[in-house]
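User: what does the whole thing look like in 3D?
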Amino acid sequence: MMGHPPVPSPYAVLDRPEDWLPYGDAAKSPQAVSPTQSGWHVGRMISDLWSYEDASGVWVLVDGIGWKRLSPASRSGHTHMTLLAGTATHDNLPVDFHEDADGRIDQLIV
Amino acid sequence: MSRPHEPEIAAIRDSLAALGDPWQAGETPLSRLPERSRRVRLGVPAPERPDSGQAERMATEALDAMGQQVVAATAPASTLPKAFDLREVSGRDFVTAVKDQGACGSSAAFGTLAALETTAAYTRGAPGLNLDLSEAHLFHGHARERGYTSYAWPEDLFDAAASKGVTFEDYFPYQDNGSGAPNPDWPNRLAKAAGVTDLTGNPAAIKQHIFGYGAVAACFAVHSDFFHYRAGVYKHTTDEPVGGHCVALIGWDDDAQCWIAKNSWGTGWGEDGFFRIAYGECFIEGYPGPRPTVFGCTAVHLRAWLPAQRALRLFATANDANGWAYLENVGWTHLAGGPHSTTNKLAMLTHARASGHPVTPFINGNELSTVQVADR
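Assistant: Here's the predicted 3D structure for the full assembly of 486 residues, as structure tokens:
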């Protein structure tokens, strides 16, 4: 049977008022800042994700460490690490990750 | 009733007893063949001139290699060990099944492909790769094109394996009578050797290669007692060589002062198809002949669909289009096709990684070109 799925109507996407800036800041931690510990971290769990309205604005909450931003070095790399972080969170899979000198995750294994 | 080979074996046993029984002779599937049929199961010309002190020099050099700094970055340790066996590397077996060349002088193809199959698995750290390459393609196809019919030199076969590549056994099954033809799609089911290295006459380099990259093909002079080898460290007891043969060296043992080799006479011969041969024996490290006789390669590139397997780990970095998957029987493979293709593949692979669904990969070079995730 053919039917119409409940897709968003063209009117559902409205412009926002011009004086409203984007909410949040991709470069700032959503919550408590965790100290930089450059190098590899092994066997960690990611329990939360946070995404700003920015092409490279994803943060992950690493259990026992705190919020870490995924490195914005490239858009595709940021998306790829987001995919892995999503799987790790959803399926409770441990991750190994590398933290760069600025405290951002630049390599992620799940 | 006495069978014709029994007196022959009895005479070898007498000679071995005089030497302190370094190895055991007995009836093998080759013992039961007439002398002429045994010789057909070789595959390289006999060496041109007799030993002139080479054996002793090779044995000394092989033993001296112990503890040498390892060259290959991929090797499992930084110095050469006293003993090494690719069938048992920290509990992992990188050597593919023993084959049988039958009544055909195709041993160089079997030795060459045993080296390729093992190198492909070992360099990827993937014992489950379990490649089965087509000796028919290499010998009845490529070698025949170069004019060979009853033997071949491994130098030419490695050259063919590097320039044209060799398809998989299921695309051109081996028959010792040379019948059959490759599947026309063979360029899409292919292994290609890279970094082909001549190791002739250099036992330390042979050890370095086996330890760093995997098995090597080596030729040696065959004496008539070799057909009756059952176990132990082989040293010839009979005088004149009856021909030359090619096998794959898969390890060594300094305590027993020998190489460990994989033959192509089925599992009913020798030590389940394998044998040990003393350092320096029968020119195993290099013939005094017209062609170099010991070769290895440092990589084997694949272009083929491989069996369905699990994606055990996924890896991504902040760099553009840098996604990797660790496939159970292939090891780490880079995701091909640029940033968007990497995103698509990772989206599929994260599902497979989490659910345990097997993925069917098409590997092209060392890249994961295409992947199918079946929800079965």
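In plain terms: Chain A has a mean pLDDT of 88. Helices of chain A lie at 75-90.
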